[in-house]
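Read as chain and fold; for instance:
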Amino acid sequence: MISFKPKEHKTFDGLKGVLYINNNGYAIQNVIAEPANSNTGGMYVKIQQKYEFIQNKQWFPVQLNSDFNFKQISLKNICLTGEGRTYIKDIKLNPELSKKDFSNVEIEAELPTQAKEKDIWNLLRKDSLTEKERRTYKIIDSIGNIAKLDRTLRTFERLTTGKIPLGYIDIDMNRLIRINGYEGLRMGIGIHNNYRTSKHVLIGGYVAYGFKDEGFKYGGDLSYKFSKRHDASIGIKYCKDVAESGEISFYENTGFLSDAYLRRYMVKIWITLRKKKFLQNSLFLNI
């Protein structure tokens, strides 16, 4: 067992703790570390890592513990704390794997019903919940329901993706309303099916009307994802619409909070400033 801490009169914020060394290969079996000075402000973190000798071959981490204390966040002199517990099991050393065993990075899981949720968590949870922890979960869930946190998170997600999910279809928020110098006020609607309908085929279309140019615009597209691993798809698209002169389209997200949406806004500002400059000078040269 090795105890460690910074030397006295040192100016850096070091750690203190204990290392447990096993005589089998002189490997670390357990480590505990925390800030040497617990009076510092900010966040206080204490970690513990436990290792086991797996399959009589090598040491491997099996349990990771983290304890947090947010000293700057307090309510009536009670600081916010947190506990993290990670357990690793069913360990297989040096398994025979090939590239076909790996797809794109993703996790798919079916949400359990409320009746089965308790049984599933009890099966997966390494340690049982105390009565205090049960009450904590209940209070946190109650606060979330009162503050409608789930609805807030869903709203923010829709803003970032630019989609409003309605069952098996998505409403394109970018097609609802738009204002520009040529069309004036443009209103429309765009609809696509989502991956709840099909994992490989996406089809949709849109229609819009500009009140200043008094013209209808419409279009549609169809795509097929033939490689889920590489996220590769092929498709066709048709539209009868107006576009910015010299516009270049990239494969990018065009949601409300995307850089592409901000670019369109800046183009509009630039066109306005350019018109003013033309009226003042009557001659300009762009390089």
